[in-house]
Write a structure and sequence with these properties.
Belongs to the class-IV pyridoxal-phosphate-dependent aminotransferase family. It comes from Microlunatus ginsengisoli. GO terms for molecular function: lyase activity. Keywords: Lyase, Pyridoxal phosphate. Helix content is about 25%, strand content about 25%. It has two domains: about 15-20 and about 150-300, D-amino Acid Aminotransferase, Chain A, domain 2 (Alpha-Beta Barrel), CATH 3.20.10; about 25-145, 2-Layer Sandwich (D-amino Acid Aminotransferase, Chain A, domain 1). The protein contains seven helices and 15 strands. A hairpin with a 3-residue loop joins strand 13 (about 255-260) and strand 14 (about 265-275). Strands 7, 8, 9, 10, 11, 12, 13, 14 and 15 form a nine-stranded mixed beta sheet that branches. A six-stranded antiparallel beta sheet has the order 2-1-6-5-3-4. It is an alpha+beta fold. The two termini are about 35 Å apart.
Amino acid sequence: MTATTQNRTGSAGLESADTDGSAHSGGSRLRIWIDGRVVDTPDEARVSALDHGLVVGDGVFEALKVTAAGPFAVQRHLDRMTRSARALGLPDPDHQTVRSAIEAVLAGREWAEGKIRITYTGGHGPLGSQAAYGPQTLIVAAEPREVSPAITTIATAPWRRNEHGALTGVKSTSYAENVRGLAYAHHHGASEAIFLNTAGNVCEGSGTNVFCVYGDRVVTPPLSAGPLAGITRELLLEWCAIEEADLTPTEAAQADEVFLTSSMRDVQAVRRWDELEYGAPGRITTQLAAEFARHSSDLIDP
């Protein structure tokens, strides 16, 4: 690794632009399924002011990419959504209904690369933290996206993840902590914030998993460290030789390469982490990115 000290300008610049792949398209290119019907504008897709997903964040979600071949890894995302729903005490979402909604919002699309957001909440509930009454709310939305760049920069957030919390490992709609972390990263000229956990070890990004490379050895924090079980992370662990181990900030700083994974970023090399710089993309990151691209192009629903 080449490590140099770099002065921060405090200006986000180009690297503060959203890199989750969302095109912010709106209009007729955005399609939303809600209550069994498809609408083309957000104003037509309304939920109750008493929806528990709005009132207390009692809901879960999934975001998955769409390519020319179709939506990627749908079943894995549905399985994770079910695990998240069970963790919140919500009934299992109906997978076939979600799949039908995905087909509906993608029907007749004029774009190849896109994003699907699936939101599932407790539905109507009290103005407090008691259980929702239901029935549950399901929303599936799709829009085109710009493919994420191959290289990015990251910044360490000043807040810690609780690896023992009730929402650890749950992809909950209670996402304000991530919103704040991402804003911090943008303010510091980065596209992603990296959180440590309460033990002081590397945990995850606001919407990504983190990997460090030491020679030919690739390491990512274990789920016991508190990160979300990312779908791209899961597939890389199945397809490639990668270790799970706790990483201290000092150990992470000694890495030869660092990369992120997520459903929108795939395998994304890190050029700068705070003041540390890397020759990105490195050899191993390039190999793993190619391996992931090869497997994912062969298997649309691995």
